[in-house]
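Regression report. Comparing outputs from two consecutive submissions.

Submission 1:
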Amino acid sequence: MSSRPPLRALLLALLASLAAATPLRAQAPAASHVPLVQGVEALCLPVADLERSIAFFTEVLEFRLVARHEVEGERWERFLAVFPLRLEIAVLSLGDERLELWQYWAPHASDANGTVQPNDAAFQHIAIVVSDMARAYAKLRAHRVRHASSGPQRLPDWNPNAGGIEAFYFRDPDLHYLELIAFPPGKGEERWQAKDRLFLGIDHTAIAVADTERSLAFYRDALGFRVAGTSENHGHEQERLNGVFASRVRITTLRAPRGPGIELLEYLAPGAGRPLDERRRANDLGAWQIRLAADPERAAVAARPFATLGPRSPGVATLGEAPLGFVSVALFGDPDGHLLQASSIPPTGPRASACLGR
């Protein structure tokens, strides 16, 4: 009869000897996830009359004029897919946020803003935070600003994520939608509780979307935004705020590491309105643009599976100079056709500017 030890015992002895002979290695820490988009740097708004719009935003809404630039040439034409191009830009600031007003001297901007409804795909606005809604509304009334809401609305307390927020929609001289918003204690960022100024900054830009899940696949999964909050708003207050009868709105707030948020507005009722006009170009008055701090080539590749009809750069444009704080940039659309720029703004560099929406 064989006196060999059982095979199981031999295997255990072999494993033990290997473990003793092999030094232990420290396990490398998992690499932290760095989102593609590092910030929302600017909101860009086409206007028909730059001087008129500068006066409106600085005198009525207390923005500050930071700089003015005029650009032209092949590199900017490739960036914006607009030809032949001459563009004048006014850079404004409010608090930490920046807004750019873009007047196209050539080709002249087309105008369809007056017919846009809040549930149409073209809808976008910026939310301007105020410290006192009654005083801010009184100032707009004194300047005879055009209403989009019937008046300031206080969202009801039954809505845990939005209750107590006051909001009011209105229009600028080109009929772009804008919003005043006031946050009660405990909602919004702590800085929005400041009382030293009436107009404090831009909390977010809001955009109408047809399908929140599709938009999340783009903004969250492809570009790296995080979901900062959700809400479902309905009732008389919401109807009087947005001017859409029997509206029920699914709201999803997205944030990058810095800058204003992007708010997705999906109208569950009465449903999505008109889609974007396939002929829209970057110089149309309704073509807001959101500038992202992100590698232009990587961002354009990430956006490609979601490509929609409309203007986009044929590739990454190198501008040769940096009047707005960046040199390389790409223009592309989100799943609903809202325009975004990915620009090579250094994470520690100057914050260049802003482009619009809610």
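Submission 2:
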Amino acid sequence: MLKKLVSIVLVLSLLISVTACGNSNNQKASSDPVQKQKQENQSGETKNDSEKQEKAAKDFPNKPIKLIVPWSAGGGTDAVARALAQTGEKYLGTSVIVENKPGGSGAVGLGEVMAAKPDGYTLAILPVELGFLDKQGIYPFSFENFTRIMNLNTDPSALTVKADAPWDTLEDFVKYAKENPGKIKIGNSGTGVLWHLAAASLARNTGIKVTHVPFDGAAPAIAAVLGKQIDAVTVSGAEVSAQVKAGEMKILAILGDKRLEIFPDIPTAKELGVDVNINTFRGLGGPAGIPEDRVKILHDGFKKMMEDPAFTDVMEKMGLGIDYRNTEDYIKLTEDTAKSLEPVLKELGLYKK
């Protein structure tokens, strides 16, 4: 009887043990699918994120592109931007919205672009000044802090005065300036920018003393001449073309190496014996780090925009020089220009770096 009782106890113990193991295994089996599902979900999320990124790259651009002009509306840089923006929808499949962000000789607008996300949706018309304003302590950045995409335009400086000014030639202007040191006020689009260098170079090469007056762009400087607040500007001939054609202003000399097609009768300073050759260029760029595939899309799209009559007709009408250069050539242009202007800056006492 005792043996039988022991046997029953052993059998029951075995059954309990097996049941416990079975329950344990069932619990493990039931938890494994949950863990497996979590892993599958995580894997799926990673895959989805990757697919989303790939799709976003393929769909670029799929929302409006902001094109910042770091000067006031109405100047040459603004004109180039707005002429381009007309055909954004046609060649990029999305609108290009121009925004003017003047201030600090262009530093305000350019600073905003530099700090933007490098996704290709925030661009700017990059000025020549990015090659040398950092050396003057005016910009805390240079071309190296931006993605350079392509060059758009090149224009020479032009010494321009109000139509009823007492000078009809560069010789008259220089003679008066020598007789009245510091009396002539020449406006520019910002302290240390290229049009300031143009006026300073003219003064240096003719031995005259003038007063330089900075503005936030060419347009307000031109308005100041018309309002007789200043005597002259050394912005591009294209930027004063409308006023010259309207008989409100007159160009005394082109401060570049050749005459302007829209004003073929106006001589260059070099023709008149004054060795001054100052040209601006404007390019397209964005914050540093824009992916190469997006740079190519932007380059190809904007190149087509540059070839469209909507752009070329406006540029020709305004006398703005179209000067397309691909990414590689544009980068070389920025580097060569920066090097060539260093001696000028040093001679003018503007070089601080």
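Expected: both submissions complete independently.
Actual: both completed, but the second showed a warning that disappeared on reload.
Relevant detail on submission 2: The radius of gyration is 33 Å.
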